[in-house]
Amino acid sequence: MLGANVLAFLIPVAVLVATVFSATEVFGANRKLHLKEPSKQRLEISQSGPKRSAEQNSFSQSLFDETESQKIRDLTKETVFIRGMTSGLLNANYYGAYMVQDIAYLANGAVAYKNAAALTEGKFKAFYTEMATKWGSEYLIPMLTAWHLTDAGKVEPGTAAKEYMSFLITVSKDQPKYLAIAMLPCSMLWRWMAHQVVSSVPVDSAYYSWFQDNKSPSPGHKGSLETFVDENFGQEEFNTAKPFFCKAMVHECSFFSESGNQTPCDLPPGCA
């Protein structure tokens, strides 16, 4: 989902052109976008895939490098949505629908962090409180302003976004400690995809800035969420954390898939 460094990058949704316009010029305050019926071709994750490196990684990176995670991230990179952005030919209505729904996701994330903060203590309570404020102001407010919306309630999310949002709220209430794990794919997957394809995206492409802004600013860079997870989760918690991470990865994949008029991604064996 949306990272802080992509907030300034918005693409016109009225027509796909090479020139980038401000999003405030093309969206009205109450406009809601609805996706077409999805195609019948289901995205499936193969049973075979690259094995995890023997190199010892951080807790967060180890989750991202799990075999199941590699399958999901590769599938996400091959969705119509991401391939369309890479080529510069993505239907601009798809992009607009995704970005507008992302506003609802940001508001939901702030609520999830607030829920988790109320149910945890110490470092977790402090961090979740900080993240709730960041998501509800630093991330959400600029998006609302840019898209001429007064609140996230004016957005009608699609099925994939609703299911993703519901998953995070459930985790925040039932297993609040692991909300940090469930939120990791939001930043890690975007950054990984941007790094993978930015070199093949034409600089004059309407979507080049998305990849450029979301790629890692430096080798080995970690965001505040990854740093927190690495410092506060031990190896003995890895097997418990993995399903939360894996399911969130699938939700990310499905959100991109539905936004490209494709059916949802499947949960691979080993994620449950």
From TrEMBL:
A Pfam family hit: TENA_THI-4
Signal peptide positions on this chain: 1-22
Protein name as catalogued: Thiaminase-2/PQQC domain-containing protein
Gene3D superfamilies the UniProt entry points to: Heme oxygenase-like (1.20.910.10)
SUPFAM superfamilies: Heme oxygenase-like
A cellular component annotation (GO) from this entry: cytosol
Domain spans labelled Thiaminase-2/PQQC: 137-256
Biased composition (Polar residues): 44-64
Keywords: Signal
Stretches for region Disordered: 40-65
InterPro entries (UniProt xref): Haem_Oase-like_multi-hlx, Thiaminase-2/PQQC, Thiamine_Salvage_TenA
Organism encoding this protein: Acropora cervicornis
GO terms, biological process: thiamine metabolic process
